[in-house]
Amino acid sequence: PKIWHPLFWGVGLLLAVVYLFAVCISTIVMDHTETNQDLPSRLLELYGSMGKAQSTLFMAVSGGEDWGELVKPLEAISAWNQWLFLIFMIIFVLGVLNTV
């Protein structure tokens, strides 16, 4: 029935936003690991692949782990990564979750 359509669109929007930011973050991390030997602790554990980055982003918005702790390895690479993560949190929490 038509009652399921908003649910599917909402879930699709959630997945698309997480996927988009996971691609950006994991690309930044992989570029950093190719050129640098000294890696921040937990960087590859949290953002070492697309799946790990998506899982980490989901943990950040769902309360699985404090997002302030999840952004620290990214901050060690560049201060701009903190802003990217913050933009993700703002879009996801204030935009997407209030829409769904």
Question: How would you explain this protein's 3D organization?
Answer:
- The protein has five helices and no strands.
- It is an all-alpha fold and 100 residues long.
- It has helices at 5-35, 43-47, 50-62, 67-77, 79-99.
- The mean pLDDT is 90.
- Helix content is 81%, strand content 0%.
- Helix 1 packs antiparallel against helix 5 (79-99) and helix 4 (67-77) packs antiparallel against helix 5.
Radius of gyration from the alpha-carbon trace, in angstroms? 15 Å
The percent of residues in helical segments reads: over 70%
Main pleated sheet: none
Query: What is the oligomeric state here?
Result: single chain
**What's the tally of helices?**
5
Short account of what is shown:
The protein has 100 residues and is mainly α. The chain has five helices and no strands. α1 (5-35) packs across α3 (50-62) and α1 packs antiparallel against α5.
Essential attributes:
100 residues, 5 helices, 81% helix
Topology (elements, then pairings):
Blueprint: H1 5-35, H2 43-47, H3 50-62, H4 67-77, H5 79-99
